[in-house]
Amino acid sequence: MGKRHLLALFNNFDEAEAVVRELRSVSLKGFDASKDMTVKSPIEHPEVEEFLGDKPVRVQWFTLFGAVGMGALMFLLISAAQGNFFAQMKGGKPIVPFPPNFVLTYEMFILGGVYITVLGFLICAGLPARRSPLYSVKVSEDQIGILVKSEEGSSATLKSIFTKHNALEIQEEAGK
Amino acid sequence: MKDIREDIAWAQINKDVLKSLENPRKLYWVILFIAIAMVGVAVGCEVYQYNTGLGVGNFDNPHVWGLYIATFIFWIGMSHSGTLLSAILHLMHADWRKPIYRFAEAMTTFSLMTAGLFVAVHLGRVWNIYFALPYPNMRQVWPNFQSPLLWDAMAIFTYLSSSILFLYVGMIPDLAICRDNMHPGWRKKLYTAIALGWEGTDRQWRNFRVTYLTIACFLIPLAVSVHSIVASDFAMSQQPGWHITSFPPYFVAGALYSGCAAIITLFIILRYVFKFEEYMTMSILKKIVRLTFAIAMVWTYLNLVEYASVWYGDDQAAKHLLIQKATGTYAPFWWMMNFCGSVVPFIMFFKRFQTHIPVMFSVSLLLNLGMWLERWMIVSPTFADGYYPWTWDHDQWPSFVQWGIVFGSFGWFAMLFMIFCKIFPSVSMYEVKEMVYHRSLATKKLEATGKLAATGKGAH
């Protein structure tokens, strides 16, 4: 039996939350709420995370790696370059001047942190992405969308749950 | 005081902001035309200077830095506005920043782009701009790693690229709104490409929030370091008048000050040009004005600290320079700087002027004039009153070439900024929706509490 995508649109977060709670408690063949359900919203709404449950965000690890890695790498590179290429007569000044190198390392620490954070964001958020099978422009306007993927036989049950919680619109498409 | 309506429909927010991309007032085109004409003047002056040499700018020895470096610092300072509004106020959960932070971030980016041009223009030999970078070379030209000029190049590059990323990342949800609402054409193709397929899923929002916060946290120390390094360009040189301990914080305060003043100017212009009266409200203007006044007082304090340190210090050359500033050739500009920077802001102290558009527009322009003069008064008087007596009769008046390029830089900034506001939403739609949503929730809670209290089921 093929998988089927369903998208239901709701007027507010309360209705969307009620649907999510019901979908998590219902037992449907081929439907796992933690994997097959996506909530789409026009704003960043912390309550969505609350009712969806705790899901890890790993962007910070990219930040840590980027900042520390880039800072350390640049310090080593600059110091190595100074030691190898700039060992000209320096009038008694050290060949590898630590205080200026710390300033440059600080800038590179931030540069690496920002760049790799953005890279981490793209990886963790799955961007750039193709449009999902069902998409409504209403989600970027003022409605909350719940996209679910389930066995074809479950669609009637899902539709009844959506309708019970005042879905404004239900879109349906056969999955591949 | 009129504020953003809590009952405004989210769809209406989209509609109003998207309309600004297509249908601004005629003044938009007037500003853009004037800006392009100003850029034309600057290009003409630069071509003349490029072909003839830096002498046409009236540069000589000891006047090697003139308006170019003064204006470079001015534009770097202006860039701090975006960091203040976006990053600092974001971390402080000041939700009133939401309708205006986008254009402040754009200001940051375009100010830095403008500042960067002055590094090239100031060199004279533009083709040697790559000497500013710490590249490892084997050609007998050694970048001086101990020089803050080299740190500056790295710091500004980091600040510019991080600011562009911050602006872009924060704009992705709005770009998706543009993509979803635009008619087919070049705009739709552009938004489709750069929205990266954003759909507002819980996974995307979760990662977005952390990313935005993280970049904001990086930008604050970065902004402070950038202007501290610019201060080091002066403080680490061997010229009188630039060695006060408070120089870096003085520069940072000045940067925030000029940035805030520019935000007021652009707030008023954008509000009218793009018909944003509903979003850029008087209540927000009042808050920016108060913030600017507070920063003006910090700047004034640091300015007085500088004068006092020099006056009571043991550096005779610096003291002589200070007296020269107040009584010599540059005295009118020095007094004008003090007047615009420390006296004019007191107009903002009066409540009735805080939301008076013509008064605030004029005040913001005067403040920025003061801040530009401040930078000029840091640079030129020092060269005219150096350690060597032969410098003392070398007052420099910039030639029309210098003035033309400085004048044109304002056109360059205005041109980039206006083009940005016509292509990208200058009000953050999703954040205004969040602001409206959270305010309406708070009101509902208050109403519910009131009802409970009225029926005697409250706090007991």
Automatic annotation (TrEMBL), chain A:
Pfam families: ActD (PF11821). Keywords: Membrane, Transmembrane, Transmembrane helix. InterPro entries: ActD (IPR021776). The chain crosses the membrane at residues 61-83, 103-127. This is Alternative complex III, subunit ActD. It comes from Candidatus Gallionella acididurans.
From TrEMBL, chain B:
The keyword Transmembrane applies. GO terms for cellular component: plasma membrane. The chain crosses the membrane at residues 27-50, 65-89, 110-133, 153-178, 210-230, 250-270, 291-312, 332-350, 357-373, 400-421. Keywords: Cell membrane, Membrane, Transmembrane, Transmembrane helix. Its main location: membrane. It is found in: Cell membrane. The keyword Protein transport does not apply. Pfam families: NrfD. It is a multi-pass membrane protein. It comes from the Bacteria. Belongs to the NrfD family. PANTHER family: POLYSULPHIDE REDUCTASE NRFD, PTHR43044. This is Alternative complex III, NrfD-like subunit ActC. It comes from Candidatus Gallionella acididurans. The lineage of its organism: Bacteria, Pseudomonadati, Pseudomonadota, Betaproteobacteria, Nitrosomonadales.
